[in-house]
Design a protein that fits this description.
The protein has 221 residues and is an alpha+beta fold. The protein has 2 helices and 7 strands; from the N terminus they run βββββββαα. The strands form 2 sheets. Strands 4-3-6-7 form a 4-stranded antiparallel β-sheet, with no helix packed on it.
Length: 221
C-alpha cells in the first residue's frame, strides 16, 4: 500500500492513503516523527512521537503543528498493527509561511494586550477600592472630630454659664452683706414698712445705735 504526502507547508501536510481491505479495525493510525533517521530508528509504534486516529471511512488527513524545515516520517496503518516500509513516507517541511508568522505575531500581540488589559483593570480596581476606603475613613474621622469639637464647645459654654451665675450670685450676696453692715437700722425699718405685721411684735433695741424702736401700737399705716 502506498501513501502520498502533499500540500506540504511549514506547519502542515496532507497524507492520502488507499483503502486497506484487510484492516478489520474501526480506526486508522497516522503516526509521524520529526528528525527521522532510518539507520537508527525502526518502524515500531514506540518509535513515533505522535499518533492520530481517524475512522476507516476516511482516506485523507491534514497533520498540523509541524516544525518548519524539519524531516518527518509519516506512516498509516491499522490501529493494532505496526507499520511497514511501504506504509510510510519521508518528507521535509518548508519554511514558515510569512502569513502564518504574521498571524502568530498578531495572536501573540493580542494575547499580551489582553493580559496587560486584565492586569491594568485589576490594578485600577484595587487603586479605586483603596481610594474609596481612604476617603470614607477620612470622612468618618472628620465627623468624629466635629462631634468632639461640638461637645467640647457645649461643655465650655455650660461651664462659663455656671461660673457666671455663681459669680453673679456671689457679687449680689457680697453687696447685700456690705449694705447690711453699713445701714443695719435702715434695712430693719424698710423691712417693717414693707411688712406692717412686724409692728405687732416688740422690736429689740439695736446693738449699735442703742435706740429703741417703738413697740406695738406705735406704727402708722
Amino acid at each position: 500500500m502506498g501513501i502520498i504526502v502533499q500540500n506540504i507547508t511549514g506547519n502542515t501536510a496532507m497524507v492520502i492513503w488507499p483503502k486497506m481491505a484487510g484492516c478489520v479495525d474501526s480506526f486508522y493510525s497516522i503516526m509521524y516523527h520529526p528528525n527521522w533517521n532510518s539507520m537508527l530508528s525502526s518502524y515500531s509504534r514506540k518509535s513515533f512521537q505522535k499518533e492520530e486516529r481517524v475512522p476507516t471511512t476516511r482516506s485523507s488527513f491534514v497533520v498540523e503543528n509541524l516544525i518548519p524545515l524539519t524531516t518527518y516520517i509519516m506512516c498509516v496503518t491499522c490501529q493494532s498493527a505496526n507499520p511497514s516500509s511501504d506504509q510510510c513516507r519521508v518528507f521535509n517541511t518548508l519554511e514558515r509561511d510569512p502569513a502564518s508568522a504574521s498571524n502568530t505575531k498578531k495572536e501573540l500581540a493580542l494575547g499580551i494586550w489582553l493580559t496587560s488589559s486584565v492586569l491594568l483593570l485589576i490594578i485600577a480596581a484595587v487603586l479605586l477600592y483603596g481610594c474609596l476606603h481612604l476617603l470614607c475613613r477620612r470622612r468618618r474621622e472628620r465627623l468624629q472630630e466635629q462631634n468632639r469639637t461640638s461637645k467640647h464647645k457645649h461643655r465650655e459654654s455650660w461651664t462659663k454659664s455656671v461660673a457666671y451665675a455663681s459669680e453673679e450670685f456671689s457679687r449680689q450676696s457680697q453687696q447685700t452683706q456690705d449694705a447690711e453692715e453699713k445701714h443695719p437700722g435702715s434695712i430693719q425699718l424698710a423691712t417693717i414698712i414693707e411688712n406692717p405685721t412686724v409692728c405687732n411684735e416688740p422690736i429689740l433695741p439695736s446693738s449699735k445705735g442703742r435706740e429703741r424702736v417703738p413697740t406695738t401700737g406705735q406704727c402708722s399705716a
